[in-house]
User: Fold this.
Amino acid sequence: MHIAHDQATPQAAPKMHQGHIDHTGHETLFRRRFWWCLALSIPVILYSEMVQQWLGWSAPAFPGSKWIPLLFSVIIFGYGGVPFLQMAIPELQNRKPGMMALISLAISVAFIYSLVVEFGGFGESFFWELVTLIDVMLLGHWLEMRSVRQASRALDELVKLLPDTAERLRPDGVPETVPIASLRAGDRVLIRPGAGIPADGEVIEGESAVNEAMLTGESKPVKKRPGDKVIAGTINGDGSLRVRVTATGDETALASIMRLVEQAQQSKSRTQVLADRAAGWLFYIALLVAALTAVGWTLASGFHLETIERVVTVLVISCPHALGLAVPLVVAITTSLGAANGILVRNRLALEAARNLNVVIFDKTGTVTEGRFGVTGVRTADGWTEEEALAIAAAAEGDSEHLIAQAIRAEAQARNLTLPMASGFTALKGRGVQASIAGKTVFIGGPQLLESLSVVVPEALSAFAAEAGQKAQSAIYLIVERQVVAVLSVADVIRPESKEAVRSLQQMGLEVALLTGDSRAVAEAVAAELNVDHVFAEVLPEQKVQVVMKFQRHQKRVAMVGDGVNDAPALVQADVGVAVGAGTDVAIESAGIILVKSNPLDVVKVIALSRASYRKMVQNLWWAAGYNIIALPLAAGVLAPWGVHLTPALGAGLMSLSTIIVAINAQLLRNSRALKR
Assistant:
């Protein structure tokens, strides 16, 4: 009954989405059958003897009118009830009875009992209770499917972001309109003002502001110039851009985001697994309570019609409809809310664990700081000029993609320096780089590089480095033939949101730690400004996991926030791994939660969302369980000696009310303050 997508989507839409389950089929089926069954139920109710007695009114009689409840009930059972029976067959075949098996049990018992009463000529039939039960089941499932479909709409909305066609530039520069499925890496495309960007790429000509809100949640358009990256599915502003395609189809950031959203929607949390198991157990509990009811009342007052009615009532109202909706709907809404705010939940267990965190560790560069470095000063040893040192440093960093390397190259370019040829480039993980220039071995890096090479820094250069550290600037050492010949001071701006994020986390009862490979002076300067609880400086990538383990040894639950590359071991070791800055590279396997933006406030949102969603799950489970806790004993006749009876119709009404309350309560999560920061 799950209907796959048959809607027309752009040919370049990610293939993974084609298999995404569309709840529209379920929703349409239950909606249509509900309205038809509701209309057919009216004659059954009006011609029911019990209802007429309650209302003190008699329906118009005509030949055959007494068969109206039976005939219409058979139609309603066949049209509205049989789908539940069909969905129960796989559960029974797999020996894993669940919600569909319980619904089928309830309506089948009511239907068969009523047929026996009708043709046996004894007792009161349950036809009007049967049709109302089917009606409320159809209504409940319609509401459930609509809620799930609305909660899962994020994937469909992401697909719609892609345009159908693109304007590919021919070698002569003339644009031609082609389907985006035909785009290949290396193609050049024209992006006109207001047009959607068809593929990931790099701007090669033009300037504009691109609206990335649909992917990052950031409402302010992002300025794009030659050399900047653009993401498929975002919307160009007033300028015209020419873009070189770097990724299409399943390789785009949009496709990666969709994969992560779908992985999160398909994964199950511990709470959801518990709810699934409870639904299966309730099938057997219903049979057990029904058996005990039959035996108990038979021994107490004999086997008669009232005993059968109580057994039927127990079986009819035992369906855990609300239980089946309690957790999945909350999780689906949580996933969609996160995606809409640039928070991609790759592993639901990570989101569930976030509510119990004690410590949040931030990697400094690019998370609490902007990650946009600039060279603020150069101090050289005797016999060296700033230009010579900067040219050699930029040449040595030529193949490095590190933010500091980019800053050094940018400074050399700004001074119009001619760079010497470099060869033998080697990245020294967590320390710096090594290269060969003019036959000499050149190193450039931070304090860890000095330790590994055991070189001595001249007093003047050491004083300059110390002064830079006091200003929260990083000191980068240029070493030629094992002689420190220059120190470059590089500054990284602290994000304006970082201080608020640290304060908010501390107000939530968490400790905040800062982790960096920079010198202790730089680290402590940043830590003092942010007022963090712990600071770890001069830490190599392989040592970051040890910092995480240090907290865990003290029974702390730890979140590690990093870039997902050098921080991968620490992200895996942490109880919750959070990868940031994922707007163009979201497929980070080491993290359970991925932030599209590099905004530290999103970490606060993750924890708040985790706590809010867990509260909703617990509330919904209690609403669902509370119904069964109260209804089953009443249906079994525990309070019958005091004149309290629970009929199948009243039980069905309570069940429907429980389901609706659970659905509404889950939707209230959308108004949570968790994401309103």
In short: The mean pLDDT is 80.
